[in-house]
RNA sequence: GGGGGGAUUCCGGAGCGGUCAAACGGGGCAGACUGUAAAUCUGUUGGCAUAGCCUUCGGAGGUUCGAAUCCUCCUCCCCCCA
């Protein structure tokens, strides 16, 4: 199956420039996706672009990940209503390194591979460009009329249409030109004929193809993916805690696994197509299986398995599964007590920890002081009071219903831990020392 | 430069001298139902204390027994005219 057909059935194709499919009939074509190094980790929102590259490489072509060191210093106005904060070069370099390690989990960078993945940083060529040279050699070829016709710019210019819009600085206005030049540079240096990205990048990409046409009389192509949505209209990839990161320090493997497990039925098939490399038949079988027995949540489990294994490895996946079984299965106090320390720590490694002095429990401590003062499990005592009233608080897997009941040393699991649960899903543990 | 409108609790948005911790909707949280899904229903959603108290309605002052509500000044936003 060729690349275009592949992304098409996966629902990853939004817009494509005529001729793209033909050019991809050639062997080993290069294409790139830009990644902003705004943090030192990718988050799952980046994964669509990464998967585009992965499928591209699987199809026998060469994927290039462009880290936007230069563009990251500017800030893409697309889809944003306010000016962006700027990054320093040190930060960008640091971020680039971390991101490359993560990309290596998806793309094959090995030297001996004919279509090995590449990673480049546009800071490396843009930083050598003087302002004068840039506006003379590049700016000359694109008219302002062309640039302001782009949606991303237009939206920010008509601030009256959108009361949140802030206008845009010259810096942001220049963004598309700088990105366009990236494409031109890769076209020249790596014979890169295609740029891919989210549908919000269409305008920026076409500035690049236009620049290539005018400056080099070359022909370059564009392909975009739809922005990922959730069936309930919420933002994909966010939880109340923010982004889901690939970095285990930022999002623990357990939380990562839980994110995918919690995918709604309405989204699961779509996500399987986008985020895994399972083929059409495999996914169809899973969907059938799911329809037979929805409660087994085979789609969510497969999603979580594939993604967690890919990003964090088999061991982390296994731990996440067993942790989830204890935490969401018919976990009881006895289960908790039967765990050895090592297993206990593994299971709760992804759960917020709070420390407390062991002596505080000798006399018994009331639940409010314990959870809102000695520790910050909850923000206020009122919140705890409400939770208890609503039957939403558990201590060591047992409902905590009496606000006057003191917490004592006897409650400790393994003479050391308290497991606090809010509602069904949110756990915290308190460690005495 | 002239004229007008506005800033309210997470968001939107009522309130226009006491009965306002502040309607209503959204969101959040919890419960029921389930499948750690969706939908639905119920409760809850400033803080502290078990009917009370304390801090909130852009900022600073003032009037009043009493203000989110009235007055003055300030800051910021929007609209119309030049």
Commentary on this structure:
With 433 residues, the protein is of the alpha/beta class. The chain has three domains: 3-225, HUPs (Rossmann fold, 3-Layer(aba) Sandwich), CATH 3.40.50.620; 238-329, Tyrosyl-Transfer RNA Synthetase; 334-432, Structural Genomics Hypothetical 15.5 Kd Protein In mrcA-pckA Intergenic Region, Chain A. The chain has 21 helices and 15 strands. The chain has helices spanning 3-9, 20-23, 47-58, 71-74, 89-103, 123-126, 131-137, 144-148, 151-157, 170-190, 202-216, 253-261, 265-275, 280-292, 298-312, 314-328, 333-338, 341-348, 359-362, 367-374, 381-389; strands spanning 15-16, 30-35, 62-67, 118-121, 192-198, 221-225, 238-239, 242-243, 353-356, 365-366, 393-395, 398-399, 406-407, 417-422, 426-432. Strand 14 (417-422) and strand 15 (426-432) form a beta hairpin. Helix 12 (253-261) packs antiparallel against helix 15 (298-312). The longest helix has 21 residues, at 170-190. It binds one RNA strand of 82 nucleotides through residues 160, 163, 231-232, 240, 258, 261-268, 293-297, 300, 324, 327-328, 380-383, 386-387, 389-393, 403, 422-425.
